[in-house]
Amino acid sequence: MAIPHPSSAVPGTAGGPARHDGARPAAPRGALAVTACMETLQIGYLHAVAAAAGCSLSQPFPDNGIDWHVSHGSPGHAVDDEVTVKVQLKCTGRIPPRPPGPSFPFTLDNDHLAKLARTPVSVHRILVVMLVPRAPEDWLRAGHDRLELRHCCYWTNLAGQPATGRRRTTVRIPTARIFDDRALREIMARVGSGGRP
């Protein structure tokens, strides 16, 4: 957590800039909107997971309600030598880390839900929701042996999910479905055998 350090006070500030490592003052953050930064952070998370799982990424252009295509090649796949899953990313700072219970609520516009819930499909879709701290300075920690992104991404398959609200619908995201490289490889193995994510 960023802590103001009196010894680094700068004229006109109350306590000076935040210090992260006890040795140097933090430079000011850029003026980019926090929501845009959240989007960039979740893309970085997806890229890291895809790299560790041996998957390739492509971004549809123009975006038609799906953010990324993730592909996994393996001679073990039964339906093709390479299978693809469409991924929709969402990010929120409103839910604390380690949500209690088996799931947490997340609200989608009905139009968006319809695209993710469509069934049957030739290419399966999953929703990946990232939970982040409210303060951007708490999103990332770097050290000599690791890079931590906080807090976590969770995934779900919404195929067949009905809309229940007039304009928006709240869906449940299972907390057991942490989106990491192992989860992505297991998703791709199921799709590669002709099943659902």
From TrEMBL:
Highest taxon of the lineage: Bacteria
Protein name: DUF4365 domain-containing protein
Span list, region Disordered: 1-26
Sequence ranges assigned to domain DUF4365 in this UniProt record: 43-190
Family annotation (InterPro entries): DUF4365 (IPR025375)
